[in-house]
Amino acid sequence: MGGGDGDGDGESHGSLHRSTINAIAGAVAGGVARTVVSPLDVIKIRFQVQLEPTSTRAAFAGGMTPGISKYTGVVQAARLIVQEEGIRGLWRGNVAGLVMQMPYTAIQFVVMSNFKTLVSSSPQAARYEGSLSYVGGALAGSAATLGSYPFDLLRTVLASQGEPKVYPNMRSAMVDIYKRKGVRGLYAGLTPTLLEIVPYAGLQFGSYDTLKRWTHALNQLKDGSGDTSLSNTQQIACGFGAGLFAKLCCHPLDVIKKRYQVEGLMRDLRYGARIEDRAYKGMLDAIRRIVAEEGLKGLYKGTLPSLVKAAPNSAIIFYVHESTVAWLTSHF
């Protein structure tokens, strides 16, 4: 009896230790990735909340002509943001992004690890190994989103406001949104976010595991010694491919989410038409209006910076997480 209790305590302690390591590694990975790719995220958001059709016609530095988009390309947008807002403009909303991303990735990896541990005891686990990574990723993404969503919304608002600032900092944005819209205002766009994150996180984790298995198999074919461990370059490549694939599949839902998040934001008109409060009656109405007013391309605004951001972001997160887990496991 006493031995059974001891085993149970040991197993519980081991599970808690693994969860703690995964949480720390996830937070570190999320923080590093967020800081590195923040400029691309800011550019992506500016495109996504720009109602005017993205045009290659000249959007000049001093402002914009009605009907002509302010931002027309990634390089042009970066140059214009730095010119009007300084280099710090490319990291606008990064504090809120860090506050969102670090707990998000921590929760994500803890849930994913615990899910894998839970299902590994099933006799059917090996048979459905490939599918389980997609299911676990979807669950992990949903849990992480629910736990960190208000900071995602604040990050979007701060990154999209431009100059002059509507809100000087994260606290002022949170207080004003809460006063005007209540708690529901801090969760605006949660439904399309969850509808996006379930397939996105599932595809990201699932395709990462799939790419790793394929790479292991290729290594085994090349090296008869049986050593199939992945090199740093291979790990990064798998994360890069997973992020690229997942984001390409789910980008339109991300555009809709961003539109909900900035409803009612009274940013300067030189950044284009504003999205009025309660502009969309629902997700289907948002899709219908975007397509009717901006064309099908409207659902893919910001795709290039989004893909350019998502791929290295995913690669950094998976690589830094696994490296941090390995270091913490060997030292603690």
TrEMBL record:
Stored InterPro entries: MCP (IPR002067), MCP_dom_sf (IPR023395), MCP_transmembrane (IPR018108)
Span of the signal peptide: none
Gene source species: Ceratodon purpureus (Fire moss)
Ranges: Solcar repeats: 17-118, 128-214, 230-327
Function: Mitochondrial transporter that mediates uptake of thiamine diphosphate (ThDP) into mitochondria.
Protein transport as UniProt keyword: no
GO cellular component: mitochondrial membrane
Primary localization: mitochondrion
Membrane topology: Multi-pass membrane protein
Localisation: Mitochondrion membrane
Protein's UniProt keywords contain Mitochondrion: yes
Protein name: Uncharacterized protein
UniProt xrefs under Pfam families: Mito_carr
Stated family: Belongs to the mitochondrial carrier (TC 2.A.29) family.
UniProt keyword annotations, A-Z: Membrane, Mitochondrion, Repeat, Transmembrane, Transmembrane helix, Transport
